[in-house]
Amino acid sequence: MIDLFCGVGGWAFGGLAEGYDVVGFDIERHQYGAHRYPAQLVIQDVLTLHGSQFKDASLIVASPPCQAYSWMAMPWSKAKAAAAAIRADETGQALADLNRLFDACFRIQAQASLAAGRHIPMVVENVRGAQPWVGRARWNFGSFYLWGDVPVPSSMTRAKMKSNGDAAKVPGFWFDGSGRSFQTASVREGFKSRGMNWSDRTLRGQDFTRIAGGQLIQGKGGWFGEYRPGQPGRSTNSKSSARKAASALIAKIPLSLARHVAAVYRR
Questions:
Q1: How large is the angle between the packed helices 155-163 and 255-265, nearest 10 degrees?
Q2: Cα separation of 171 and 260, whole Å?
Q3: For residue 174, what pLDDT is reported?
Q4: Which end of the chain is more exposed for a tag (fewer CB within 10 A), N or C?
């Protein structure tokens, strides 16, 4: 199994559990304490890969970065302006630049399949906000939207996946009554702290944990212990190791989803 934009290895854990040899590719090594990629890792820009080297693969999975799609889905004036500018570009170059990592996955699949003389299945995961730019996803598992050769599970399989506890409340998200999902700043329990006021700078970066009865208590320290009183913005800095770690874990593919896809294409 070839794992593109592999991060901390959500797809890889599923592939390994189903008996695959897994090789991951990423532009950097994501290692945060005990969280690290569990299989062979190649540090390389995915844009420089040629799919022919993957002609022996049984399956290609990919999770290209979602930040641009997520940002333009937000109700902020700058985000709306950026989206409008891309739509207004009649040359199509702005859209091509936006989708270059997403499109690279399908280029690699086509090259791999041509070299193999057979179709090599590929599943690409991203966020709901990618749909206006890359087309409608075939299926979604909670907040994880899927394109490509997606093996949509049967109702029985879906029930089994939900019973594992990571479908309705996938890592890093909780869902309200309308099915909307919200990211979390706390990776300890995987739930957004309801009632968090992100406009209050005295609360940013603090760690909250849900306990019995739904009550929220403030944890000790912030993301991975980096929060310090008097430094409320420290852990929310986009370049901080804590923020990168939290983002990587939020984006990690749930094991139920990874195992389902891997099992379908195992040969």
A1: 140
A2: 17
A3: 42
A4: C
pLDDT tens per residue across span 193-242: 334 343 444 444 444 443 333 433 344 333 333 333 444 434 445 566 66
Mean pLDDT of the chain: 78
Token readout for 119 is 């179709």
Domains in the chain (CATH in brackets) are 2-166+254-265 (3.40.50), 173-246 (no CATH)
Query: What's the confidence (pLDDT) of residue 241?
Result: 67
The pair of three-digit structure tokens given for residue 187, joined into one six-digit string? 């990776």
Expressed in angstroms, the distance from the first to the final Cα of the chain is: 11
Per-residue pLDDT tens for 230-263? 444 344 455 666 666 777 777 789 999 999 999 9
> What is the full DSSP assignment across the chain?
-EEET-TT-HHHHHHHHTT---EEEESS--EETTEE--SEEEE--GGG--GGGGTT-S-EEE----HHHHHHTSS-HHHHHHHHHHHH-TTSHHHHHHTHHHHHHHHHHHHHHHHHTSPPPEEEEE-GGGHHHH---SEEETTEEEEES--PPPHHHHHHHHHTT-STT-TTEEE-TT--EEE-S-TTTS---TT--TT-TTTTTEEEEE-GGG-EEEEEEEGGG--BTTBTTGGG-TTSHHHHHHHHHHTSPPHHHHHHHHHHH--
pLDDT given for residue 195 in this prediction: 40
